């Protein structure tokens, strides 16, 4: 089992950058594929990005491609989400999640953090 704690959210202006972190407990972090999801008020939770556990392949939603970057530091049990050129429509609670699948589908994440709020003002 793994516990996830997100940090780094806040209030920024459109065009600014922000980096989210997700710290994982346990000694088997490298065995998990990691993903970031977000949920805006009144909307369904949506996939943002993911990174595989072994070769570090990355995947992005079209809405963030070219602006966001996911990375992981297995030595620190941490996954990051670098968000650049933020837009008001990026406003949401951002969640990190972990999966034991090699390349998990959106519904194959087993563990979730509590989320961190990101608000982008225009």
Fill in the keyword field for this structure.
122 residues, mainly beta, 7-stranded mixed β-sheet, 4-stranded antiparallel β-sheet, 11 strands, 0% helix
The fraction of residues assigned to DSSP E strands is over 45%
Report the radius of gyration as a whole number of Å. 13 Å
Helix content: under 10%
Distance between the termini: 40 Å
Query: Shape from CA axes?
Result: globular
Number of helical segments?
A: 0
Structural class by sheet pairing and helices: mainly beta
Low-confidence stretches: none
How would you state the average pLDDT, rounded?
Answer: 95
Give a written overview of the molecule.
This protein has 122 residues and is mainly β. It is built from no helices and eleven strands. It starts with a strand and ends with a strand. The model has no long low-confidence stretch (mean pLDDT 95).
Give me the secondary-structure topology:
Layout lengths: L3 E4 L2 E4 L4 E7 L8 E7 L6 E6 L6 E3 L7 E6 L4 E6 L8 E8 L11 E2 L3 E6 L1
Parallel strand pairs: 2-11
Antiparallel strand pairs: 1-3, 3-8, 4-5, 4-9, 5-6, 7-8, 9-10, 9-11
Quick summary of this structure?
The protein has 122 residues and is mostly beta strands. It contains no helices and eleven strands.
């Amino acid at each position: 089992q793994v516990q996830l704690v997100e940090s780094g959210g806040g209030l920024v202006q459109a065009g600014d950058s922000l980096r989210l972190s997700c710290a994982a407990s346990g000694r088997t972090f490298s065995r998990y594929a990691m993903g970031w999801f977000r949920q805006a008020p009144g909307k369904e939770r949506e996939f943002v990005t993911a990174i595989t556990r072994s070769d570090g392949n990355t995947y992005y939603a079209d809405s963030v491609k070219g602006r966001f970057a996911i990375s992981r530091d297995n030595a620190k049990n941490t996954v990051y989400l670098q968000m650049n050129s933020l837009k008001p429509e990026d406003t949401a609670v951002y969640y990190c999640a972990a999966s034991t699948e090699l390349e998990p589908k959106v519904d194959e994440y087993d563990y979730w953090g509590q989320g961190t709020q990101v608000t982008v003002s225009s």
